């Protein structure tokens, strides 16, 4: 099979369920992964002790969910420290244990069990090794998938996790020794939304906007990642917002996914779709950008039409209304690949008129259409923490569930086509105006002899404190304008938001003023820098 690489991941050795046999061949242990509540058999040689390799792992893995896993390890160690005075946290001792375990290769299984380890995560997914685990309580579709056969042949067989993790209790004297790092093999969802889960971090939610007279937003939260709990909570399925049962793990859809546009946002999205086990075919106007994703397991599409015709659901994420229209209506475009039942999801931030026109032509050919622009930046895209605003075909929104969970922390369904475009422009109008205000304040501080750093410190202590404010101010103070969100695109969004105001005769004077400052920055060749480079428009 194709080669897949997964990052090192922290976990601990636990006792396997009684009915689960050990894989034949090389010695391995049953590992519970921190932050995912997943379990897998891991070979001895793929295990490394936690403490000596902690710093190295943190450098490799910058993602939020990895940080949560590390936090879970530290919390676990704090809890067990009081119980187990005999266990040493000294990293040198951990390393010595590991080294001695390698030398004593023929030790008894009982002694081996107390060694900790790290799965390097490079494995042939064709045999099931290193593959993301499908939950043992899989949906009908999941249980019929090739994954099941792969697992049957796998040296890392998986079975149903025990309902009560009392079975997995380990001797306190070996608790710290068992904290290790290994391949992250998948995710498990909590049993129910109504039941509060201790230590949970609710990262993925569906929100459905009621289009009836009720103004309330109806929503059902779905935890994406990740409960950290000493007890197994079972595998009860939870109800999604559409009242259909959701499988007990984030299982990738078996539909073939297409993706058009590998820019700052698209690249991170595709990477996360692949990591979650989706089958993805990619296309980009400049084909070289596809190479990295081909290496990660994506397929290459020669034209947008070919991608749409060979895939079930095709996503697109391009720069502006013109690019979105050209992609659909141009030569070898999306429309040429649309047949009845084909699905198209446009994630570009465009105006409502553009997206309505595209929806009409797609639907006229028998296709299904969803608009799903995303709020976020390159970093959030890479981390799979985008906010997705969707509107259009409700059934298609539901079909995209595993994709949205892979790329985002939250998705909102806003009703009919055009609503998501309008909402997205309003969100970016607020963000763009705020960015210009930040730049205005920092430059005014400078020219009046005030410390810009002190201004930032004061703002960070007040009610305006936010990740956005801090990051953008840091960019400016460091003179680092590497794009996280292109300045030219925030100016485009301000322009479209002002036009939206015009269409309903609503004043947008703040956005209009900010737009002028961004236009000035563009004239100063800042288009391809981050939006924080609007600062340079204020420098005399």
Descriptive keywords:
single chain, 540 residues, alpha/beta, SH3 type barrels, Rossmann fold, N-(1-d-carboxylethyl)-l-norvaline Dehydrogenase, domain 2, 39% helix, globular, disordered N terminus
Helicity range: 25-40%
Stretches with pLDDT under 50, minimum 5 residues = 1-5, 100-202, 210-248
Largest beta sheet, briefly? 11 strands, mixed
Tell me, what's the shape? globular
Total helices: the number is 20
**CATH architecture term of the domain at 240-417:** 3-Layer(aba) Sandwich
Strand coverage percent: 15-25%
Annotated CATH topology of the domain at 240-417: Rossmann fold
**Secondary structure category:** alpha/beta
**CATH classification, class level of the domain at 240-417:** Alpha Beta
State the end-to-end CA separation: 60 Å
Radius of gyration: 25 Å
Q: How many strand units?
A: 20
* CATH level-4 homologous superfamily of the domain at 240-417: NAD(P)-binding Rossmann-like Domain
Report mean pLDDT, rounded to a whole number.
76
Biased composition (Basic and acidic residues): 79-123, 149-169
Organism: Chaetorhynchus papuensis (pygmy drongo)
Subcellular location: Chromosome
GO molecular function, one term: nucleosome binding
